[in-house]
Every structure is written in C-alpha cells, then in structure tokens.
Amino acid sequence: APVQVTLLCRSMEVNSSLQSRTSLLLMWSLGMAIMFLIRRYDLSKFCPYNTVLMDHSDPSINTVLTAPTDKPGVALLDFVIFPPRWLVAEHTFRPPYYHRNCMSEFMGLIYGGYEAKADGFHPGGASLHSCMTPHGPDTKTYEATIALGNEAGPHRIADTMAFMFESCLIPRVCPWALESPFMDHDYYQCWIGLKSHFSGLSMNEDNVDLQKGKPIER
Ligand SMILES: O=C(O)Cc1cc(O)ccc1O
Ligand SMILES: [Fe+2]
C-alpha cells in the first residue's frame, strides 16, 4: 500500500480585529473548513536526490514540504523523507555522518530499516536529537561500513521509509512522552564500543597530499 502522510496546512490567519462574537464564531467555523486544508502525499512518488560521486549531502535535499522563516536557508520546519534509493558514492562514508546541528531533528521510521541504525530503530519508533546533540550511526552500522572498505559498489537501499522533521525551533518534550513506558532509556548504548578507524595511513595519494596540507593538483 502506498505510504501516505496527511499534513494540516494553515493557510490563513484569523483577523483578530474582528469584534463581534457572532462573526468570530462564524469566521471560526468557516475558518476550520478553509484554513486547514488536508493534503495527502503518496511518499513513494517522491524522487529522492543523492550524491553521484562523493560526499554525503545534507538531508534537507530530500525535503518534501517546507515551512520557511524570513531567513533564507533556515526552515521553521522541513519535512524530509528517506525513501528507497541507490547509494553509489565513492571514497565516502555512506551512512549519515556523525554530526550535531543548529536544527533539531525528530525522526520516525514508517517501515523497513534505517541506514544509520542496524538495531533498535523499528517501524513506529521515533527519535529526537535536539539542537547541538551529537548523533550518528550505531556501532554495528559503523563497523559494517568500515569493513566494506573504500571500494563498495552501488548498493540499493530497498523497502524503507523514514522521515524527519527538522526545525530551527527547539521542541519541548511533553511529560506524556517523557513518562511513556515506550521511552528507550538505553538509546545511548547504540554508540557504545565506537572506536576510531583513522590510522593516519592514506587510502590513496590524494589523501597523502591532503594530510600533508597540500592542495590536490589535477
Ligand atoms: O541524523 C539522522 O540520521 C538524519 C540524517 C540523515 C542524513 O543522511 C544526514 C544527516 C542527518 O541528520
Ligand atoms: Fe541527524
């Protein structure tokens, strides 16, 4: 079945200068009908973009819907998805990099697996990495990726649908969520055992030059 996400979009604002209660009520009921337009998107029709040579793009490249702020490039809320796609990048750590952002990230998995989490992130699960919280792939994903080496061929990530809401605002977690029996108190364990694989030895000549601080001449 196609994955559909229903979003409520506020497209008008109530005119607060209206004085009469009756007209306010009338406006309100009318407003409910007009202001909140229900949109349905079949996410399987979304065409994802990805790098075709090297590096891992910022995930906002897969924004399905955005609510902008008045600052160019700073979204109030981006709705981003991670659908099935091909991974082809060379000389690149392909899973999401280890990072922390100004933006806060709320992620969820609709079905399948998520490329950064080999264990523990199941469909129906969600994670929140608030502003400046470091995160990235779990230890198992990291080790498996390193074991593949630098010459991994094209790889298709199939049967998956993850989503993310990214916002420049910091979400406040409600007590209901904090007290939920479904809260994963051991989430941090997914990074236990991470060890550095940086050896100081280069994989190719470009890296030798870069490590010596020399620009690459072509
Ligand atoms: O944290 C995450 O898993 C989401 C995410 C995915 C990605 O491909 C790059 C950055 C990022 O925050
Ligand atoms: Fe992230």
UniProtKB/TrEMBL annotation:
GO molecular function annotations of the record: homogentisate 1,2-dioxygenase activity; metal ion binding
EC number: 1.13.11.5
Gene3D superfamilies given in the database record: Jelly Rolls
Cofactor: Fe cation
Pathway(s) where this gene product acts: Amino-acid degradation; L-phenylalanine degradation; acetoacetate and fumarate from L-phenylalanine: step 4/6
Pfam family, one: HgmA_C
Source domain of life: Eukaryota
Family that this chain belongs to: Belongs to the homogentisate dioxygenase family.
Protein name from the UniProt record: Homogentisate 1,2-dioxygenase
Native species: Solanum stoloniferum
Lineage start: Eukaryota, Viridiplantae, Streptophyta, Embryophyta, Tracheophyta
